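Thread: "does anyone have the structure for this chain?"

Original post by V.I.:
We have the sequence but no experimental structure in hand. Need at least a predicted one for the grant figures.
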Amino acid sequence: MKLGIIQGRLSPPDEGWQETPTDWRKEFRLLDELGLNHVEWIVTDKPNPIFHEDVSEFRINTICADVLVTKKIFESDFLRDNLVPICEAARKNNIAAITIPLLEDSSVVDEDKRDAFLEKFLPIVDEYHDLYFSIEAELDPHDLLEIVELRWNLYVTYDTGNTTSFGYDHDEALSLLGRHIDSVHLKDRTRSNETVKAFTGDTDFGFILAKLKEIGYDGLYSIQTCREEEGREVETIKKQTKAFRSLL
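Reply from O.Q.:
Generated one for you, tokens below.
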């Protein structure tokens, strides 16, 4: 199981709730101690060292373009001005994948918005054909499948908590999207859309992980669970890492 962590989860929230922590290198130093494989790097609208430092020696599996979670994503200039620098940073640092979150303000549930986004997004996908783009979307699995089948380098980031809270059936969604999934976010949510401590919500991790194994998934998992006691981030992730590994 290639189990990693979302950036910021091993640091106090005052260093960046889900952004690049002040001492971002510390999270990488902790990986081996915790039995983790990688860190999923987060880019927001805050200054980010990935644009001006060499981070190629660090175990970064993907750059999550959280800066795109805005209604401006449907504007051609905004999308290009924010996504292209991330693509260039990925190339420079030998990072193969970029996660595209189509959530909340960047949701493409509306078909017209989906078409508008794809019209501007696909040329960038074609331009950076050496990179993988992994779509994380609050979207019916059938609609998501239609998107990722448009290009060979489009994949799916499967978020366990989001799928639960959006009311989609994990069995159907995983069966449908299985061969396109390249990353799984481990998060617990209730069906009423509340993010809760791991293993206390409505997300059936046992079933989901068993189903992923059944369909032959051997990709990356990233812990994106609810924060617990402040100041005990390392202990929390150590406990959760053990729990997730025990399910397999």
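V.I.: this helps a lot. The first strand starts at residue 2 and ends at 6.
O.Q.: and The first helix runs from residue 24 to 29.
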